[in-house]
Amino acid sequence: MYDLATRQHALALLSQGFSKNSVSRRTGISRAALRSWTERLQPLGQDPAAACPRCDRTPRPPEDPAAYAYLLGLYLGDGCISLTRRGVYSLRIACADAWPGLIDACAEAVRVVRPTNKVSRVRAQGCQYVTSFSKHWPCLFPQHGPGKKHERRIVLEPWQRRIVDAHPWELVRGLIHSDGARTTNWTTRLVGGERKRYEYARYWFTNVSDDIRRVCTDSLDALGVEWTQPNARNISVARRASVALMDAHVGPKY
Length: 254
Description:
Layout: H1 4-15, H2 20-27, H3 31-39, H4 65-78, E1 79-83, E2 89-96, H5 100-113, E3 119-124, E4 127-134, H6 137-140, H7 158-166, H8 168-179, E5 180-191, E6 194-206, H9 210-223, E7 234-237, H10 240-249
Antiparallel strand pairs: 1-2, 2-4, 3-4, 5-6, 6-7
Helix pairs in contact: 4-5, 4-7, 4-8, 7-8, 8-9
């Protein structure tokens, strides 16, 4: 690791027109390190391994609790955390290519929650993985553990519950954006003796985990949103007034 003064000196030489080869010979810094410093997204001087608010002597919530609540919803829906060979953790959230606005919103939430860490987008078939590396993802998402989320207990910590209670719509928006959808359903009814087609909007949240569905429905209850569970995995919001609330605060994916 190089200290800040060494990095600043090397970048100053590069800015004066010296090549990476000459700066490497003069300073002893590898060309790979010089290249990474000129291409890095985070500002010089910010430590990507900087301590998180949960690691302070007096743990505190993230600086932007609303962004955290949204990111928590995305993580519980389509996110995973894994330990890399370098000893840091990778947060990955799968976002379908069909929703470029969601991909941008996800990347921005990750950036706000961990501003000292680089955010990348890794392409896969039909989706992009919004990815960021940090030693502190398990501190921020203590629901991390071995195996799949639906195979282990998922319970919010008291500090997370306080954030969710203060920003319930952000959590619900993250859950719907990850594992939900706004759809238009239809049925028929008799009107004046004539059968007519009737369309209505509905929100769905689909997740295998009983605990994660409960996190969703607890927040819906707190917000006064009426919901039903038509089958084991799905939560439905179809009442007109409740759909109007969801439209005002969540909206369809984009």
